[in-house]
Amino acid sequence: MQSTKLLPSACVQQIVRGSQKTQHGIQRIGLATREGEFVEGFYTDRRTSSPLPGGSNGNYLIVCCEGNGGYPEIGIPLVPLELGYSVLAWNHPGFGSSTGMPFPKQECNAMEAVLLFAIRHLKFKWNEIYLYGWSIGGYTASWAAMNYPSLGGLILDATFDDLDELARRTVPNCLYPLVLATVKQTLDLNNSAQLIAYNGPVRIIRRSDDEIISTSEPPTRASNRANVLLIKLLKHRFPNLMTVENEALLTHYLTLSAEEQVMQYKMYTRETVVASIDYTMLKT
Predict the structure, then answer these.
(1) Is 256 helix (H, G, I), strand (E, B) or coil?
(2) For residues 195, 196, 201 and 207, what is the CA-based torsion angle, rounded to 10 degrees?
């Protein structure tokens, strides 16, 4: 029964690989980590190709880090590919043809091998390389940004701050201390700590109705852990700006719908203008 499920999946991947190779000039590569594990990767170098949508975008390399259960053949690389960027994507340890297990150390070693390939073989400069991490792929992306600070920038899409509160949601309260200790020992994916260690450009994309990284049931914008990731970054980079009052204002703003956010912004800016006018009148 299990083999009949795996066969269609394998066929689909082969079909997708073939179509992408034809459409985007994708090359399949094999890399070795410092532990000797095999990393399956895919890339397209568009620096010398004919003009594509996006103009000079091909001069920049987007390194894509997939989410849990994601595959580069059908995942986030499709976005930068359509925009004309050079792209380098890879399969997590244990996924696709990559060997090993998707534990933090092996994940980071795989990420290291991918970046060294980009620098030494493809000859991209550090500031020409941008990292794009989706969901749990934000761990390897933020780890790389922390360890290679000259990278051009970091994009975190649907990424959480750490696993602590997400683990609490999935187990009874009586078991949480045990689960938390296990997570800290074997799966300490502290994305926020790695993120604040990077001082380069960052873009955080939050999926407003995300069910995976929200801690409430049903999921809400208020419980989305991307909120916490953003606030921790802002508090680190702008400690004087992120007062208790401003943090509370931002936290509330992040719970609103897009329409409510526009109304809140207009209300706040109108109050600011009125206050400024009153202040000017007092001065005269």
Answers:
(1) coil
(2) 50
Return d(Cα 61, Cα 264) in angstroms, integer. Answer: 38
Q: Rounded distance, CA 59 to CA 80, Å? A: 12
Q: How far is CA 225 from CA 138, 157, 164, 203, 221, in A?
A: 13, 12, 10, 15, 9
Contacts of 70 by beta carbon, 8 Å cutoff, 6+ apart:
76, 134, 135, 137
Number of neighbouring beta carbons within 10 Å of residue 128:
17
The length of the chain is: 284
Report the alpha-carbon distance of residue 221 to residue 215 in Å, rounded: 10
- CB of 42 closer than 8 Å to CB of 110: no
The answer to whether 25 and 84 have CB atoms below 8 angstroms apart is: no
Per the CB < 8 A criterion, the answer to whether 169 and 215 are in contact is yes
Give the model confidence (pLDDT) of 99-144 as tens digits: 999 999 999 999 999 999 999 999 999 999 999 999 999 999 999 9
Q: Domain 2-258 adopts which CATH fold?
A: Rossmann fold (3.40.50)
pLDDT tens-place string over residues 235-282: 999 999 999 999 999 999 999 998 999 998 888 776 655 555 544 444
Q: DSSP class of residue 241?
A: T
Helical pair 104-116 and 137-147, crossing angle rounded to 10 deg: 60
| Cβ-contact 87, 29 below 8 angstroms | no
Q: What angle do CA 212, 153, 185 make, to 5 degrees?
A: 45
In contact, 1 and 60? CB cutoff 8 Å: no
Q: Would you say 139 and 107 are in contact if contact means Cβ atoms under 8 Å apart?
A: yes
CB 88 within 8 A of CB 62: yes
Measured between alpha carbons, how far is 211 from 29 in angstroms, rounded to an integer? 34
Burial class (CB in 10 A: 0-12, 13-18, 19+), 46: buried
Task: Give residue 181's identity as a one-letter amino acid code.
Answer: A
